[in-house]
Amino acid sequence: MDIKGKTAIVTGAASGIGRATAVALAERGAAAIALVDVNDIDLRETAGRVEAAGARATVHRLDLSDIAATEAWFAAHGDVDILHNNAGVVSGLPQFPDVDAARIRWIIDVNVTSLIAATQIAVQAMRRRGGGVIVNTVSTVALGTGFYDAMYATTKAAVMMFTRCCAPLKAECNVRVAGMLPGLVDTPILDTTGAGGKSEWMEQVLANNEACEPKDIAGGVIALIEDDGLAGGDWLAVRRLAGKIEYQWGHADTV
Fold first, then answer.
1. Homologous superfamily of the 7-250 domain (CATH)
2. Which of 35, 51, 94, 185 is 20 to 30 A from 6, alpha carbon to alpha carbon?
3. Which residues have a Cβ under 8 Å from the Cβ of 201 and sit 6 or more positions away?
4. How far apart are alpha carbons 129 and 141 in whole angstroms?
5. Sign of the Cα pseudo-torsion (222, 66, 153, 116, in order)
6. Would you write out the chain's pLDDT as a tens digit for each of its 255 residues?
7. Gyration radius (Cα) of the chain, Å
8. Which among 232, 225, 237 is positioned nearest to 252, based on CA atoms?
């Protein structure tokens, strides 16, 4: 898809990957970008950067764990060309099995239920307008055998499967759904893994792996959006190894 002149929604846009993607979309010529997050203060900073890059930005405070509110918001605002379902949360402490049931439901609703609801509504709108592109932020943990944060890994695996199952929508609705799989990325979410900061296990992950920057992942999102030759359900993993960014491409029928 040629991004120039298009409209977009980016969730989790207050910082990190969401902010970087919103700015990258503006730099590629997007006309208008709706910025969605629970943190409306940092959303305003993102909006300033988006507008400086040439796109019109609107700020929308939305708690994606409130599924009814999410459905209502997307019903009112989801008629766009591009949707980046980027918002996500980690468990923090305590971890499974000691985490309480309410927090488990919160993680599932933010990472999975709201994403499915947003995609469903956006696909219906995109079908009416002739097509569109949706990129879901997954994680490279969905390609592995496990992860310390069991609920985060489980929800990201669910998003990966959902993305792959959306592959037929390209032929049926001219809506291409793709997956962005970031490796380790230096974003504020890392500081929510522990009690008021990074957890011990996250400190060990950082000590043994190279972290990407949000703009590295945003570049991958742009690549997924712009290449209409990709099949529905395709995905792209982005990691930093030996100081270089590496891309790993995959398809709906591969893991």
1. NAD(P)-binding Rossmann-like Domain (3.40.50.720)
2. 185
3. 148, 193
4. 35
5. negative
6. 999 999 999 999 999 999 999 999 999 999 999 999 999 999 999 999 999 999 999 999 999 999 999 999 999 999 999 999 999 998 878 878 888 999 999 999 999 999 999 999 999 999 999 999 999 999 999 998 777 889 999 999 999 999 999 999 999 999 999 999 999 898 887 777 777 787 777 787 777 778 899 999 999 999 999 999 999 999 999 999 999 999 999 998 865
7. 17
8. 232
Retrieve residue 131's tokens.
Answer: 């097509």
DSSP 185-237: B-SGGGGGSSSSS--HHHHHHHHHSPPBPHHHHHHHHHHHHH-TTSPTT-EEE
- On the 0-12 / 13-18 / 19+ scale of CB atoms within 10 A, 123 is buried
Cβ–Cβ < 8 Å for 217, 182: yes
For residue 214, what are the contacts with CB-CB under 8 A and spacing of at least 6? 16, 17, 19, 20, 185, 186, 187
CB 21 within 8 A of CB 33: no
> Which entry of 148, 152, 162, 235 is annotated as an active-site residue?
152
Question: Which amino acid, one-letter code, is at 116?
Answer: I
HSE-CB of 148 using CA atoms within 13 angstroms:
14
Two tokens, residue 43: 């959303």
152 catalytically annotated: yes
